[in-house]
Amino acid sequence: MTESHPPHPRITKAVIPAAGLGTRFLPATKATPKEMLPVVDKPAIQYVVEEAVSAGLDDVLMITGRNKRPLEDHFDRNYELESALLKKGDEARLAKVQEPSDLATMHYVRQGDPKGLGHAVLCAAPHVGHEPFAVLLGDDLIDPRDPLLARMVEIQARHGGSVIALMEVDPQQIHLYGCAAVEATADGDDVVKVTDLVEKPDPADAPSNYAIIGRYVLDPNVFDVLRKTEPGRGGEIQLTDALQQLAADEKVGGPVHGVVFKGRRYDTGDRGDYLRAIVRLACEREDLGPDFQAWLRSYVTEEM
Ligand code: UTP
To answer: N vs C: which end of the chain shows fewer Cβ within 10 Å?
Structure first.
């Protein structure tokens, strides 16, 4: 008897590209990966892995490179530290140290030369195989109270193909992002069909103010397209260019849909956004928030 497969298999694998050079954050990122910069008291990358796990994806492949060893160490055990905390009876901190290594099944592959996000995603091909998978950018933080990935997984299960995350931005800012031309769908206000994509367009040429943000659920046919994708803007192999080809020809890998995100998102690779993320998340923390907010209020009223 032949085994029957559901039309759209359940997604279990998350790919987290974290091999970029992080030049916007130099010199902090000279010897430390930008994904390890703390947002309050947790490195940015831990929020991203937690987000994947809470959307049901507990097989995580991180794309790393030179200088990225701390990423692997963070999700590994640290017996020395654990036994020191155990000896002290400091169970609360022990739990914090053990938490990252218990989160998910972690895998790593090195990108070699950082030839762009498309190239980083292509490095995941042998691990992913022929199933749909999620991509979460390692420096893009989605507030855990505004879930996005689970909705994207649901839309992918309904339509097949690929799903990208979109956010409406000020039209003058669209040149900083990949941009999508879209059509409405019957799935609700937050779901659109993507008909075209362009990387970092001039505002005058942009087809919309829908910017691509760092979450994707991709059909595995994207790998074949990426293998044939020539370096684009900035001499890098652009994921947007490969997705543009999928959107233009549904026969290649099914349709491309977009989920429009209206929640809180921080690009921790950008210094301003990084500071905003810390202030916001610190203010909302039960342990730190009350004191920090009181200080912030007096700082704003008395010193600004
Ligand atoms: P960015 O363009 O934000 O990362 O890439 P970057 O190149 O590190 O940053 P700057 O502009 O120099 O400051 C988005 C995501 O893609 C990963 C990055 O690590 C980041 O998570 N990336 C980018 C790779 O993994 N490999 C690459 O070749 C490029």
So the answer is: N
Pocket test for ligand 1, best of 29, 137, 199, 273 (most atoms within 8 A of CB): 137
How far is the centre of ligand 1, averaged over its atoms, from the C-alpha of 89 (Å)? 40
Given a cut of 60, whether residue 1 has pLDDT beyond it is no
DSSP string covering 15-78, please? EEE-----GGGTTTTTTS-GGGSEETTEEHHHHHHHHHHHTT--EEEEEE-TT-HHHHHHTS--
- Residue 285 is encoded by which pair of tokens? 């923390």
Average pLDDT score, the chain = 92
Q: Which residue has the higher pLDDT, 304 or 255?
A: 255
User: What DSSP state is assigned to residue 89?
Assistant: T
User: What pTM was computed for the model?
Assistant: 0.93
Q: Which domain holds residue 51?
A: 13-269
pLDDT at 76: 96
Which range has the worst mean pLDDT, 230-234, 252-256, 271-275? 230-234
- Which residues form the pocket of ligand 1, taking CB atoms under 6 Å from any ligand atom? 17-24, 63, 111, 114-117, 119-120, 137-139, 269
Same domain as 291, residue 197:
no
For residues 68 and 63, what is the distance between their CA atoms, to the nearest angstrom? 9
Nearest to 121 by CA among 32, 250, 218, 252: 218
Q: Is the domain of 97 the same as that of 244?
A: yes
Instruction: Kindly report, residue by residue over 60-88, the tens digit of the pLDDT.
Output: 999 998 878 899 999 999 999 999 999 99
Q: Give the distance (Å) from ligand 1 centre to CA of residue 20.
A: 3
Do residues 27 and 92 both lie within one domain? yes
Query: What distance in angstroms lies between residue 272's CA and the mean position of ligand 1's atoms?
Result: 17
Q: In terms of Cα–Cα distance, which of 236, 201, 198, 276 is closest to 17?
A: 236
